[in-house]
Amino acid sequence: MLRTLIEYLNDIPLGGIMLVVALGWLVGRLEWRGIGLSPSGGVLLMALVLGYLGMNFDALYGADNGNLPRMTIGSFGFALFIYAIGFEAGPRFFSALAGSGLKFVSLAAVTNVLALGTAVGGAYLFGLESSSAAGALAGAMTSTPALVAASEAAPEIGRLSVAYALAYPWGQLGLLLMVAVLPRLVRRPLAAGTEDTTEGDGGEVSLRESTLARARSYLVENPESDGKSLRDLRLPATTGCVVTRVRRGDEVLLPGPEMVLKLGDIVMASGKLVALEKLEALIGPEKYDTVLRNSVPSPRRILVANKAAIGRTLSELDLLGRDKCLVVRVEREHQYLEPVGSLELQRFDVLEVVGRQARIRDAATRIGFLEQPEYETNIAIYALGILAGLLLGHLRIELGGVGLSMGAAGGLLLVGLLLGRFRRVGRFSANVPKPARQLVRDLGILLFVSEAGVRGGAALQAGLDISPWAVLVTGFACTTLTVLGTLLFAGKVLRLKPIDAWGGLCGGMTSTTSLEAVNRQAGNSDAVVGYAATYAVASVLITLAGQLAVALT
Q1: For labelling alongside 510, which of 256, 277, 296, 422 has CA 20 to 30 A away?
Q2: Structural domain spans, the chain
Q3: Model confidence pTM above 0.90
């Protein structure tokens, strides 16, 4: 039945690609104790299987797949993905190079140099040709950006895809295994020295619990609060909470400073645990209210961009005192940080805040700017950025009779970095909301991987000549030596704490899965700081490493 479906879809190849993407995404979401293939890994696996079983794109490109047109679905996905990588890395990349995070920049560089050197060494030792060497590198680092970038220079996409698939399992599983075992072997547990507690009315509360903002509702029963306005109660100053909604009878009201509380009102407020306990003591007991819970406003997102805010701590900015706005959480490199007062803000951190809309706008003007609503994207600027990247990559400069070119990957990456850093072209905003960026990035990589995987599976079925053991050993060495060498450099040379060293390693390998494992081992999210500091630089370096692996072998 499956072969019949494949034969039918071969007449409508776009449908075949969508089947690969759908099935692969579902397979990639499967996890066992935190271990999974990831969506791109799942798509590659399904593409290899379906390609081996006979799926092809002859109806789209013709029967001569060895002479493909210059524009394919995979190359379209390639362009979307590489540009998105640069766009997302832009803010952090330039900040890291110019800022105080040079330790983590060097850590990202060492991680990728070790991986590249091991892959190239394995290629010469075992006689691997360039496509297999680049695939082993990308798989060992579980890096789809390296795979995509290498595809532009690799002579055989089939070998590249198969080598990536062979090296990927140890790249994923081996790293998670080392996260679990190495800290205990060297007697430097990740949890050591990372716990803290704070004393409150209810006894000891973990620092993590005390700094997380949440929304709860309270019944006004205290006579001392009856008949007083929110301005008179000064709740942000006296408790640290921000009132977001008030229910009076069947009516849900938007609170203003002149709103007077009455006995029987139900107040919805956002704040940290200790602050909410103070509010409860002031107005009355907690009371769950479904209507209020469903009316809680979504936090607004403020992008940190003004020099006056960069490098300052949340305590110094004092949004609660100055703007009556509560910082719910801070996003940095797709990871969330606890909004503790000592957290130093970096360029293009995102603050999620709740409060009155006018106050939030005032705070945004002081700190940076409000992110565009999720439904607004400047498609023209985004498309012109991709065009500029492709044109730049197509330029060739003759030096001493040698033609030099950045290639499509280099051009797209550079333009993406620049637009991601400045987010404006003249008076036009180049900012793209996070959901739109994520959709473009994920769709791009899945389209590329699905086509490359199907072609790799077809090559396997046709008797692809590849040395699996050589690829496996090279991938094993690449993952293992990179982890050990990076940790040694971080501890002995940079003198980083274990939690920062592991966070930096995860960022250097652009591995979110391993970061989650480190967080579980440590019992907190302190590793996110090191991860975020290295991730942006590493995402650029690993992309370049994919191309260098082809050039050097």
Answers
A1: 422
A2: 197-293, 300-370
A3: no
